[in-house]
Specification:
739 residues, alpha/beta, seven-stranded parallel β-sheet, six-stranded parallel β-sheet, 31 strands, 23% strand, binds adenosine-5'-diphosphate, binds zinc ion
């Protein structure tokens, strides 16, 4: 018999099928992981069998060895579909389905709960990469360990020995050279082992919940649209229960950021930790490997994880649930650049099982599809525990500024914080200073400067002192004068959470504060640590970015202050309003989730912007109706698809040459073959240099179709034929993040 094999490599030339003879003694199946001799390479290459057939027209070599892991047929199918749709190698997709790390030895006695040496990277990744390239670090084992740790920082010595060929000598030598550091830590191999389990039972569903869950049949796609606190999670829990009773598995995706044990606790207390596997990037490689195996051997039937949990080796899958389906973490920015919602749609279609998408603020595309009857809409309009939605007040910061208040915190918000401090209630202050985006705004009229062609906020580029459109390349000089009201109050904005914390401490010297943003949660579990500390130690004020917004339930939080609702309005993205509305609704949903009434203060320079105005009543429908018309008018998704061709190179000239050539290639074909699409000229990317690589992009607006896929793929071939020295091209279909 002959096996068709995909070599596990991200080299484009190897992205094709190779035939190999199957030795009779090996039980090779479709999906098997094998090792094969390849070309004139000395070592064996890893490959995946994607098909088995009787004969081949070529003279072929034999498979050398078989690994135990195997990918299910459906996932081979899924990989093929993904590699086509997301313009990447088949092996890039197949790789997602393989166990984390590559086991090179048999599992010996795995440590469970004792002190071990944890090894971490001690230098900049770039310096290490340079040193490897320059031959300063020699020896395959040393390089192996460094590369392994750059992917899996903070691994135990045991895990390093398990997943690489290195020994403790290799590690010690790297420690003495200063590349690695060693710390003794207590490792809990089971991340939930310390949890006291209080079992919870099914709540009696209210009519809306009951109606929603009754409508979820054994297949089909459902959008569960329910306001914050309406009891969506309870529905997920009972759906999973339904599956367990039929001996079926469930996959539940949640945004990476809310994958804290706090979220997972609800599932553990209902089903017990023995039934649950958690998969996300914060786990150590060993923990991920364990989770993978517990799923593979059927021990864990409930998989909770970030987007990659879709590819867990489940058997008998009964449902996929995606919570906060609008979240941008479902869109992968690394190869393969897939969208987890789309992949879940494909997978559930293939398996004929239901897909449930849940959100209080659905993605425009999904709600549009639901309205058009393409998917089923399930609605929850009331809070499940009878608490009321919080009372939202919008503070016009232009007035605040005019009255002489230069603080980031308005008088109104100060008063409310003070009230909360007196009543010993907790407050969350939210400031979304994620990313670099600095914007220019008139503080007299709230006007931000927008592209005339795209209705998108222009981004300030400091280096050239210009304002640029990230879509069509339009640019203009920075103006000292507001084009709307002619005042000379144009200001640059860019204050972050750190400055906010300082200010809070100055104004309320006796209040206790805790800050949560990328800078404070980098260590494993510090996310949970901060949230627990806030909750258990009764800290007065939690200050944070996006990560305080999602999913958390703090009974004592009765006040939420949004420092600047405008940050997301100015990100230079067609999703700006959508993201603003989503964030405001989510953050407001943190206030007053129990008996005490919640108050929300939203500070803005754009009180009449519809995304901000409608968040006052948290009326998604109203927002949707306005936004969908704008999308239609300007031809943005869901009325078209956007293909973003990102090009980069170390050399600016080389990059320009690549961009020109690819654009000409596309343009000629688009004209000659009458493609109905909009092809934009190459423009520098919003962040036009990252890590010494210059970046440009070409945007295509189209209705995605096979024909367009072929066009883009042949453009990729054109690129590979150029044999660019340092150039790279990455393609993203409907990116969530346009930076
Ligand atoms: P969501 O996921 O929509 O934000 P949750 O499922 O977290 O909502 O529910 C919010 C609160 O309401 C939780 O404290 C939950 O225990 C409670 N709850 C949910 N469903 C019910 C119900 N049927 N009866 C009573 N309380 C409920
Ligand atoms: Zn103005
Ligand atoms: Zn433009």
């Amino acid at each position: 018999m002959i096996a068709e094999i995909i070599i596990n490599s991200n080299v484009k030339n190897l992205d094709r099928i190779f035939d190999y003879e199957i030795p009779t003694e090996l039980n090779v199946k479709v999906g098997s992981r094998v090792f094969v001799p390849f070309g004139n390479m000395k070592t064996l290459e890893e490959g995946i069998v994607i098909n088995i057939k009787d004969k081949t027209e070529y003279k072929v070599k034999s498979i050398s060895a078989l690994q135990e892991e195997q990918i299910n047929d459906e996932y081979i199918e899924l990989s093929k579909w993904m590699s086509n749709r997301y313009f990447c190698n088949l092996s890039d997709c197949l790789n997602l389905m393989l166990p984390p790390g590559r086991k090179t030895k048999n599992i010996q006695n795995r440590i469970t709960d004792k002190k071990v040496n944890q090894i971490s990277i001690a230098k900049d990744y770039e310096i290490i990469e340079q040193d490897i390239e320059a031959g300063i670090i020699k020896g395959k084992k040393q390089i192996d360990v460094l590369e392994f740790l750059m992917r899996n920082d903070n691994s135990s010595m045991q895990d390093i020995e398990l997943f690489t060929d290195a020994t403790s000598n290799t590690v010690n030598s790297l420690v003495s050279k200063g590349y690695l550091s060693k710390n003794e830590v207590k490792v809990e191999r089971n991340p939930f082992i310390h949890k006291v389990e209080v079992r919870s039972v099914d709540l009696k569903l209210n009519d809306e919940q009951q109606n929603a869950i009754d409508r979820i049949k054994s297949s089909g796609e459902y959008l569960l649209y329910g306001i914050t606190g309406s009891g969506k999670t309870e529905i997920y829990l009972q759906l999973i229960e339904r599956m367990l009773k039929q001996n079926k598995s469930s996959i539940m995706l949640v945004p990476e950021i809310s994958l804290t044990p706090q979220t997972v606790d609800r599932f553990i207390s209902r089903f017990g930790s023995e039934n649950i596997a958690v998969m996300h990037s914060k786990l150590s490689i060993g923990e991920r490997y364990d989770a993978w195996n517990r799923i593979k051997n059927g021990e864990a039937k409930i998989i909770i994880g970030a987007r990659s949990a879709l590819f867990a080796p489940v058997t008998n899958l009964g449902v996929i649930i995606i919570d906060e389906e609008h979240d941008e973490s479902y869109s992968s920015e690394m190869t393969p650049r897939y969208n987890a919602i789309e992949v879940a749609e494909k997978l559930t279609e293939m398996l004929e099982i239901p897909l449930v998408l849940g959100s209080a603020t659905p993605d425009m595309k999904e709600f549009y599809r639901a309205k058009n009857g393409e998917i089923q809409l399930l609605t929850l309009t009331k809070r499940a525990n009878e608490s009321n939605l919080p009372n939202v007040e919008i503070v016009d910061m232009r007035e605040s500024l005019a009255s002489g208040n230069r603080s980031m915190i308005s008088q109104k918000l100060k008063d409310e914080i003070l009230k909360n401090l007196k009543k010993k209630k907790q407050t969350i202050l939210f400031l979304n200073r994620r990313g670099f985006s600095t914007f220019v705004m008139c503080t007299d009229c709230g006007n931000t400067i927008k592209c005339k062609r795209c209705n998108i906020t222009l981004t300030y580029h400091k280096k050239e002192n210009k304002l640029k459109c990230h879509y069509c390349g339009y640019e203009q000089k920075v103006t000292a004068e507001c084009p709307e009201c002619k005042s000379r109050s144009m200001k640059y904005f860019g204050a972050g959470t750190q400055r906010l914390e300082d200010e809070v401490k100055k104004i309320f010297p006796n209040a206790s504060t805790i800050r949560m943003d990328i800078d404070t949660v980098s260590k494993k579990n510090s996310h949970e640590y901060i949230l627990n500390k806030f909750k258990n130690e009764n800290i007065d004020i939690l200050i944070g970015t996006q990560m305080v917004v999602k999913g958390h339930h703090f009974p004592k939080v009765t006040l939420v202050g949004v420092i600047s609702a405008d940050t997301n309005l100015n990100i230079g993205d067609f999703r700006a309003s959508e993201k603003t509305f989503q964030t405001l609704t989510q953050v407001a949903g943190r206030a007053g989730r129990e008996k005490d009434e919640g108050r929300v203060i939203i500070q803005t320079y754009n009180p009449e912007n519809y995304a901000i105005e409608y968040s006052k009543t948290q009326d998604y429908n109203l927002f949707y109706d306005t936004e969908i018309n704008i999308r239609k008018e300007l031809k943005y998704p869901p009325f078209c698809d956007i293909i973003m061709i990102d090009m980069s190179a170390k050399n600016e000239r080389e990059l320009i040459e690549i961009a020109k050539r690819l654009h000409i290639y596309l343009k000629n074909r688009v004209i000659n073959e009458k493609f109905g699409l909009l092809l934009y000229s190459p423009v520098p990317s919003p962040i036009d240099k990252i890590k010494d690589r210059y970046r440009m992009r070409i945007i295509i607006k189209c209705k995605y179709a096979e024909r367009i896929n072929e066009l883009v793929n042949s453009m990729l071939n054109e690129f590979y034929n150029m044999k660019a020295k340092t150039g790279r091209v990455a393609i993203m279909l409907n990116p969530h993040n346009m930076l």
